[in-house]
Amino acid sequence: MKKCPFCAEEIQDEAIVCKHCGRDIPESSMVKTPPQHPESPKEWYAKINDQTLGPMTAEKVLAELRSGRYSPKTKLKREGDAYWRQADLMDGFSDGKPPKKSAAKTQKGTRPWKWNQPISAGQGIGIVVLAIIALLCLGGLFLDLPETPPQSTPSAQPQTSTVDLNAAIRFTGSQFVISNNDNFDWTNVKFDLNRPGIFSSGYVFNTARIEAGNTYTVGAMQFAKDDGTRFNPITTKAQKLWISCDTPRGTGLYSGKWQ
Hints:
Order of helices and strands: EEEEEHEEEHEEEEEEEE
Number of helices: 2
Helix content: under 10%
Shape: elongated
């Protein structure tokens, strides 16, 4: 394409008459518009030996993986993401193609939580430790906690006292970020999401221990029902979350819900 020297509108390179103003185009006045080559967005970062490399394009990351400079365990992060993830756990890079940006990951901020009072001792008696989920998270969701079956501790007398857990939990839309603010560990921990009633369970996740003062991340799709149905945050709204566990002072209980 070139520009008409009289009206500055773009016309074909072979044109000798401007279709916009009708003027004859002299050969000496032809002005060609240089081709535009948009650059690929450089929005990826890699972490190797605690050194952050980037920004770089997805194609550059893929080339480094294919060349062997980056291993499948190399930590990658897109600009704006909060967490680093291994290359072999990310959709796209694990099968040799750069990933597509998910609309769900571009949303910033989280929904506020509003916590109720802890559940009563009478309600806590009805809580039963259920199935163990040991599958890897789906669709790029990941888990920091190892999932293990609850360990039962033999005791001469059943434990009847209850303790209000000091927990802080927020939901990012794809993950639950859980903080143990107590000065003691939680053991045999059960998370029950969207439980319909006292004597029934919703989407359950179990883990052996959450240490005092630590924060853990659990992928939303790690929660599952007894029949294996996993919680999908895209199609199902997270409404309530119950926590029960063993503590040195008795059975720990907590519940919360969204506003």
